[in-house]
Design a protein that fits this description.
mainly alpha; Cytochrome p450; globular; Insect_CytP450_Detox
Length: 380
Amino acid sequence: MRMALFDSLLVDATVALISLIILLYFYFEYKFTYWKKRGVPFVKPLPFVGNFKDVLLQRRSPSHFFEDIYKKGRGKSLIGFYIFGKPSILKTSCLKDFNIFSDRHIECDPKTDPLGHQNLFVIKGQPWKNLRAKITPVFTSGKMRRMFPLISDCAANLKRYIHDLDDYGKERHVEVKETMAKFTTDVISSCAFGIEANSLKDPDAEFRNFGRLAFVLSFRRAFEFTVLFFLPKLVPLGRFSFFSAATAEYFRKVLWDVIKVREKTPSRRNDLIDLLIQLKNKGFIQDDEVVKMNGELSKDERTEKLELSGDTLVAQAAVFFTAGFETNATTLSFCLYELALSPEIQTRLRREIVDVMHTQGEDITYETLHQMKYLHMVVS
């Protein structure tokens, strides 16, 4: 009797599962006819996974995936996947029409990932506009200029670090990516959190170990980011998060410890912490510059009241770290690699830097850096 009941339940479950798969198949087939119905050329998708199979299986990076789509659409006026190939279009969508393109596809669960949900990169709609109006003065040229000495100090440490390597002999090999990661860790920890990480001096520096842990790309972490960016509706189901629980807790501890010390013994470092304390206490950042970008909100325009405290405050420091650490380390590493492959470009770049320093002085300032046009071409 029990065996018969079990067999019956097994058959019912199998039929239900097969029915669900068939329904999902036809649902996706219907959804994947979007471009076909509109007469737009498109790359034929596979059932269930669409065009993302290789990305989901981590066979191709998202950047290579987009490049593949771009190449398949070459010669056509458009293809059924939005890819902007002209810098002028990118500039228009990111500046002039940014009020239309401000929302990103990524989604974070407010319950399981509050830091991810509340940071400027993820937040959407009116809350994003309110937060952006508060945060925008952080990135004015005046604020960047005042942070520049902090970056220069880290660069001086990098120079000493590389110079000290000569003591080990001319044949010593340097892992450039790790060296650049240490350098950017020192820069971000100084500018964003107001602390000296000393990653270049101490191989076991806490902030460097944390940064290394935060960006370890395991299979699960890679899959998690794929879901966050490309399948956001699945985020609540799988409890996927932009910041892990350990990462979020570390950010909270570091930020509030630094703010507590800074408020007890007021000091002006002109770093992100100073600006966040202003936001926390005053609700705005005092700035003499008029911040206005093509009709977008400025500091003088009224916005709905936005309380910047708790995780909302921590989230901005956290995204400052994640956006500035790995991206800059990777850019610098590839830049140095390409310079090593192209001695003539390296020579021309060195000549420009020497010439500017010869006319403007030995110390590189924010202003002299902007005079190095070829340097900007090389980095970009």
